[in-house]
Specification:
Largest sheet: 7 strands, mixed
Structural class: alpha+beta
Distance between the termini: 73 Å
CATH superfamily of one domain: OmpA-like domain
CATH architecture of one domain: 2-Layer Sandwich
Radius of gyration: 42 Å
CATH class of one domain: Alpha Beta
Helix content: 40-55%
Strand content: 15-25%
């Protein structure tokens, strides 16, 4: 045998022996990753890996542990490992046939952090055959994480806060009531009735109306006159009518004397059965339940009176306690209190703000020309009315809008200390909790935000953070905000998302960035580039973010894209 042949046989034998103790590399083609690329959802990165051990690969005495490892700049995250064994291994792991191989499925979830934006998913193997460790090369199976859902952490910063509204009314409707009692079967107004407290209060209010500084405006007088439900209906009709005329004449004279002009509406009720029933119900009259039952049984006035008269034990009390109180005219004076004009309120604030009511102060803040003036007015309100939570809450909204979240939190906490159930403060506290990533706390606070301005938008943001994109869309409704558009984008409703973004009242960098994502997903390269330019010009940090964003992977070779993402 020649030396050459002998050498070849030696090499062949070594190769065979070596192959018996090694398991060799696994091709990436043996693995399917879902989704690919990976995608962040509610702060998590879920992944499903379907793998295959090919035929004659898994040694009969082999044990192989597979660990999915997500690597990113500065670190890595280990997923849930899975262990597989050959046919001659005693254990509880999935057994893989040497002759035919076998399929397997692995599921794992990573906690998302921003560096994962640019990352790679590897499968790392630890294997033994018998008691001997063997090496299986790691396999790269996926590139990067689509983190578009995580943009809610940025869109939250432009969310609408909940501003506590004032209750200021320029015109407040008021009324003053007076009652004139009449003797039985009479329509003459007695001097004693004119001197009664209710009539004197009526006259005092009437005389105040023409005085300019009192800010009162006449809005009409209503007179309702009645007869008691005893006697004939015809007689009572004429009597109630006459009482109305007498009262109207008296009122007209007092209006003329006071210098007040306006409408007087007079009506009468022949027999005041409604008032009768009410007074009887409130009395301690004997057999009152029987009397009330009679009223329900009979509608005819004469039959009612007949049946009630038959209740002899009670009728005497009725004539003394109830019927005289029904012989009356009720006078209702309607007038308006006229509040200060906008100019008067602002003038008062500049001169002596302490003379403004709390509602006027809060209204003045809503009229402010700019944020500085608004903050000045709210600050003064806080000093003058320190127990009203609304000044603290509204100052918190201003702090939130300018990005001073620490100050916003301090002010909201003060508002909640004054009123733990204040709906607006609870909504704002919920927004701040979301910025901190505490969705459980946010949920708790938003549950107390019933009917507050901005509640639905805040709920939409909460659902986005929780990964409930469809629910988020419903919560946002027709709201035109970056977050609302993000919810629609994540639901792949690109037309609605684009429409929403076009309706944002104060578009910012994220508005343009979301437009760029929509354009990229719908293969409109020029529009994507234009919006990226705008986004980066407003927020230079988005240049580096876009360079790593898998939403723009198709643009990475575009010269304009390269230029934009190099801008800092």
């Amino acid at each position: 045998m020649s030396k050459k042949i002998s050498l070849c046989m030696t090499v062949l034998a070594a190769t065979v022996l070596s192959s018996c103790s090694k398991m060799g590399p696994l091709s990436p083609d043996y693995f399917t990753v879902t989704p690919n690329p990976l995608e962040a959802q509610a702060g998590k990165v879920p992944v499903t890996i379907n793998g295959l051990f090919p035929e004659k690969y898994m040694k009969r005495k082999a044990v192989v542990t597979v660990t999915p490892v997500l690597r990113y700049e500065g670190g890595e995250a280990l997923g849930q490992p899975a262990t597989f064994q050959g046919e001659k291994v005693v254990g509880n792991n999935q057994t893989i046939s040497y002759r035919v191989g076998g399929n397997y499925t692995m599921k794992t979830t990573y906690d998302y952090i921003d560096p994962m934006h640019k990352s790679e998913l590897y499968l790392v193997f630890a294997a033994t055959v018998g008691k001997k460790s063997v090496s299986i090369p790691e396999v790269k199976v996926a590139d990067g994480v689509i983190a578009t859902s995580e943009l809610v952490k940025r869109t939250l910063k432009s969310a609408s806060t909940s501003y506590a509204q004032d209750n200021f009314q320029r015109i407040i409707k008021k009324k003053q009531e007076a009652n004139i009692q009449f003797l039985i079967n009479q329509a003459k107004i007695r001097t004693g009735e004119i001197k009664s407290v209710s009539v004197q209060d009526f006259l005092a209010t009437l005389k105040d109306i023409p005085v300019e500084e009192n800010r009162k405006a006449f809005d009409g007088i209503e007179i309702s006159s009645y007869a008691s439900p005893d006697g004939s209906l015809d007689f009572n009709t004429k009597l109630a009518d006459q009482r109305g005329k007498t009262t109207k004449s008296y009122v007209a004279g007092e209006m003329k004397a006071a210098g007040v002009e306006g409408n007087v509406d007079s009506k009468y009720t022949a027999e005041d059965w409604e008032g009768f029933q009410q007074l009887v119900s409130q009395s301690n009259i004997q057999d009152k339940d029987v009397i009330i039952r009679v009223l329900s049984m009979y509608n005819d006035p004469e039959e009612r009176e007949k049946q009630i008269r038959n209740i002899s034990a009670a009728y005497g009390d009725l004539t003394k306690e109830i019927l005289p109180r029904l012989r009356r005219s009720r006078i209702m004076l309607h007038y308006n209190l006229i509040g200060r004009t906008d100019e008067e309120i602002m003038s008062q604030f500049n001169q002596e703000p302490a003379k403004l009511s709390v509602e006027e102060m809060l209204y003045a803040a809503s009229m402010a020309d700019d944020e500085e003036q608004q903050e000045k007015i709210l600050g003064k309100m806080k000093d003058i009315y320190p127990n009203d939570y609304r000044s603290y809450n509204n100052l918190a909204t201003l702090a939130y809008q300018r990005g001073d979240y620490a100050q916003a939190k301090q002010l909201v906490d003060k508002a909640l200390a004054l009123n733990a159930n204040a709906p607006e403060a609870n909504v704002n506290k919920g927004l701040l909790s979301m910025l901190d990533g505490n969705t459980a706390e946010a949920t708790q606070y938003l549950s107390k935000g019933s009917n507050a301005l901005g509640l639905n938008e805040a709920l939409g943001n909460l659902y986005l953070l929780q990964g409930n994109n469809a629910q988020a869309v419903k919560a946002f409704g027709k709201d035109a905000s970056n977050s609302a558009a993000l919810a629609q984008l994540l639901n792949k409703d690109y037309l609605s998302a684009a429409t929403t973004l076009n309706g944002v009242a104060e578009p910012d960098a994220m508005t343009s960035y979301l437009k760029a994502i929509i354009a990229s997903r719908t293969n409109n390269t020029d529009l994507a580039i234009d919006n990226l330019k705008t986004a980066v010009s407003l927020d230079s940090s988005l240049a580096d973010y876009a360079a790593k964003d898998l939403e723009f992977v198709k643009l990475r070779n575009d010269a304009a894209f390269k230029q934009i993402t190099q801008l800092k």
